């Protein structure tokens, strides 16, 4: 059997609609009606791309190189890179934790993770733009010589997860460390904010980050932390644990901030939803993205 027949047979065996199979076949024969092909057949007076008017419209140009196609391919390529990472994580989950993932789930998770990340980036860009117009909504650094912790929570009903993000800045506004983490299940917003603050305080303690200021954008959480009421629910347990941690940190001040001033923590929290494991970073490592 020659190479072409083998190729044709494997194409026929793919679970794709016949229309697409036919298109791929014509593509391989270079017989799709691009401007260049039509020009060579004397059906068209110009071989130039009718979309960008910049180059001859070959198959390669029409499908890959034309500037109108580049965005679609960069999206596909980004997804492909996320798939590589998710496949490797799935392999590790199977080998080390005996958890097998369905292929469809791997693909869905890669897509979700990419969507969340891009949405957070877009939001950050938009907020950076809008906050340059409104100085009052910009995050403020702590006093000289002190560190500030910002935290925020995110809840994803779609993935049934609650996540959190935290960053520590110095007085110059430099990020010294950051973390993002999540857990299964959805919490009430206030409970999620409390849980994220508690986890972030533990993370600061374990990493020797001596913070003096904390900012959260949930007013109710601050009210509950400052009240003397005892609450026996799981939320009450979180509140009590935070109070206990505060009692060992007498110089820490807790502040309320507006959501618009807490965007970095907010974006990390959004990103955390797609993570398989806790992500933690400090300024000694190169930063994988804009914080
Ligand atoms: Zn073009």
What is the averaged pLDDT score? 88
What is the 3D form? elongated
Determine the N-to-C terminus distance: 56 Å
**Range of strand content:** 5-15%
**CATH topology descriptor of the largest domain:** Nucleotidyltransferase, domain 5
| Number of helical regions | 10
The tally of structural domains comes to 3
Order of SSEs, N→C?
HHHHHHEEEHEHHEHE
CATH homologous superfamily annotation of the largest domain: Ribonuclease H-like superfamily/Ribonuclease H
Gross CATH architecture of the largest domain? 2-Layer Sandwich
| Hetero groups | zinc ion
What is the count of β-strands? 6
Protein name: RNase H type-1 domain-containing protein
Pfam family, one: RVT_3
Organism: Cannabis sativa (Hemp)
Domain RNase H type-1: 150-271
Attribute tags:
elongated; binds zinc ion; 3 domains; 291 residues; alpha/beta; 6-stranded mixed sheet; 14% strand
Description of the molecule:
The model has no long low-confidence stretch (mean pLDDT 88). The chain has three domains: 12-65, no CATH class; 69-121, no CATH class; 148-282, Ribonuclease H-like superfamily/Ribonuclease H (Nucleotidyltransferase, domain 5, 2-Layer Sandwich). Helix content is 51%, strand content 14%. It has helices at residues 3-13, 18-28, 35-40, 59-65, 67-97, 103-133, 189-206, 219-226, 234-247, 263-272; strands spanning 148-156, 161-169, 175-184, 213-216, 253-256, 279-282. A hairpin with a 4-residue loop joins strand 1 (148-156) and strand 2. The chain is an alpha/beta fold and 291 residues long. The protein has ten helices and six strands. It starts with a helix and ends in a 9-residue tail after the last strand. Strands 5-4-1-2-3-6 form a six-stranded mixed β-sheet. It is elongated. It binds zinc ion (ZN). Zinc ion (ZN) binds at residues 49, 51-52, 54-55, 61, 66. Residues 49, 51-52, 54-55, 61, 66 line the site of zinc ion.
């Amino acid at each position: 059997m020659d190479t072409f027949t083998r190729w044709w047979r494997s194409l026929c065996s793919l679970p794709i609609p016949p229309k697409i199979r036919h298109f791929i076949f014509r593509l391989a024969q270079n017989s799709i009606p691009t401007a260049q092909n039509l020009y060579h057949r004397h059906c068209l007076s110009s071989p130039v791309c009718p979309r960008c008017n910049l180059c001859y419209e070959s198959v390669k140009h029409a499908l890959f190189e034309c500037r109108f196609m580049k965005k679609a391919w960069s999206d596909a390529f980004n997804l492909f890179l996320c798939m590589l990472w998710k496949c490797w994580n799935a392999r590790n989950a199977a080998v080390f934790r005996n958890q097998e993932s369905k292929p469809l789930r791997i693909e869905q998770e890669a897509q979700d993770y990419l969507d969340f990340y891009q949405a957070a980036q877009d939001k950050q860009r938009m907020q950076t733009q809008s906050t340059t117009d409104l100085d009052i909504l910009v995050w403020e650094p702590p006093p000289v010589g002190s560190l500030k912790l910002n935290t925020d929570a995110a809840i994803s009903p779609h993935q049934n997860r609650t996540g959190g993000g935290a960053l520590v800045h110095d007085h110059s506004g430099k990020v010294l460390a950051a973390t993002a983490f999540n857990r299964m299940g959805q919490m009430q917003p206030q409970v999620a904010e409390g849980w994220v603050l508690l986890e972030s305080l533990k993370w600061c303690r374990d990493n020797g980050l001596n913070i003096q200021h904390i900012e959260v954008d949930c007013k109710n959480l601050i009210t509950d932390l400052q009240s003397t009421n005892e609450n026996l629910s799981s939320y009450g347990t979180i509140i009590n644990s935070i109070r206990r941690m505060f009692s060992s940190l007498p110089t820490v001040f807790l502040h309320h901030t507006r959501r618009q001033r807490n965007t970095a923590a907010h974006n990390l929290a959004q990103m955390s939803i797609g993570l398989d494991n806790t992500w933690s970073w400090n300024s000694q490592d190169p930063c994988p993205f804009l914080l």
